[in-house]
Amino acid sequence: MSEFDLIQRYFTRPASSAILGVGDDAALLRVGEGMELAVSTDMLVSGTHFFPEADPFLLGYKTLAVNLSDMAAMGATPRWATLALALPDVNETWLQKFSTGFFALADEYRVELIGGDTTRGPLNLCVTIMGEVPRDQALRRNGAQAGDDIWVSGELGEAALGLAYLQSEIELAEEPRISCLAALHQPRPRVALGLALRGIAHSAIDISDGLLADLGHILECSHVAAEVRYDRLPISPIFECCVENRIELTQRCVLSGGDDYELCFTVPVARRAEVETLAIRLHLPLTRIGKIVSGSGCKVRAGNGSVITIEKGGYEHFA
User: Which pTM does this prediction carry?
Assistant: First the structure.
């Protein structure tokens, strides 16, 4: 099968919202009046971001999900994507399952695949996603202000615990194992939340490398500091029954494990009630975990006020 046959069979679909989609040297797009284009690229590399034997349907799903999460963090409506694949060989069964997983999520969020590339090489998956956001309304990392509340969506830690299970660091019974692996392989992009936070949040980021690492990006870009209350974190109940007395593992999964793809955002105290209303409307837990303060860095405090020492804030590719 040639490269062009591969693209035609598995990745060519009508793109009604594009002027020109797959099949030419470039796609042509028209952004809505009064809109700005939000663009993000994420690469998933075999052996670094996923195991080589990963289920291709779930891999196709997650390849797009992590990019949708970036759109959510910007408060952008996802519209178009390109997909670049490096493949060690042409495995049609693998390609069929991968493309099915990819398009299952693309259809849910009305994202159109408008181009990309394929080449022979070690398995590598790269998506560039584009979305629209009203002019000057994008959520950014550099807007946090001293006095802001710090919030996170959903629950933290299950994806990292699922990875710990796959790496034989811990045993999990069937029910928690299914939940943790679902969190790892099929994260839910918080697109609706990102859209709802426009005009409310001062800053936002998605939690991909770990809460402390990603919150740290907000702090650095905004030139502020943070105090986080560990006892307020929305830790999955699975930790209570499965990781009893393993405090270090729990803290690592929740604070620096990564792969949560929840949103961390800051909001002025005066708008606290609006966030609480959002949680009800979206049927999504939103938890206030701390506050932005003047200075630099982030302190994590236990319920008694003592500072918890964390050796590693999150995943780093070149550490």
Answer: 0.91
